[in-house]
Here is the input.
Amino acid sequence: MKDLGFILASYLVTFGSIGLFTFAVVRRARRIGRQVPPESRPWT
Amino acid sequence: MTAEVADTSRRDRVTGTGFTRGLGVVTLLGIAWLVSFGLFVTPADINQGESVRIMYAHVPGAWLAYLAFVVTAFSSAMYLFRRTRSLAWDRVAGASAEIGVLFMGISLVTGMLWGRLTWGTFWTWDARLTTTAFLFITYVGYLAVRNLGGTHHQRARRSGVLALLAVLEIPLVHFSVRLWNSLHQEASVAGNTDVTMDGLMLFTLFLGVIVFTLMYVWMLLHRQRALTLQDMMDDVGLDVALEARRAEAVAR
Here is the structure.
């Protein structure tokens, strides 16, 4: 496939950055969540 | 033992629920579908060649960034309106802006990669590119303003006003290709009654928009819940500090 490097790079940037953002959100939430009992979370 | 496992699992799934887990699975399947169609199944474009495959990430990224910024403005308006004032709206606004900045960044980078293949350059000070970069920087500024000091309500008020001003840039970005001479092509699908795109390419583009929307909803739910936890911890910290100060005053 012509221009494969650019095409793969665009998919890597897209899903890589979304994956990193997701990982950061979940990790931060877990860190804070340890200090909040499950019954205090409005969505549980 | 089983109760202990269930309790540990509940503690670990801090911002997750049955709905978000189901949504996450559907989204992952959607991503696999989009990537396989975008890279292998759809044909090359007659003019753009293989580089058209970048569009399946670039266009949904731009549309979702617009959506995220509109949600930020709507939630901010709901906070600023006295009858519906709640910090929950402000947290939705903040979470949506963060995701919008992520999607706008993706759209900018994938657009630069596509531009290198199609125009021969990563960047040019074209009307669409310049206004998009300006929109991106505006929302990075919005996130910076959210992190200034003050109470939660002060944060919500000042960022709410900024969000209502910033959203006005979106029509400028969208119509920049019509308002000025632009290298960037006009919309191929939105607002176009005569779409000449290949059926499979059009389907993949719509699939991209749907998958990115699912990702957006999943991230929004988790991020605004994480912000809720953060605000709860801030309040607890403030209460503890006030209690310590009172105890200090009594001891004197």
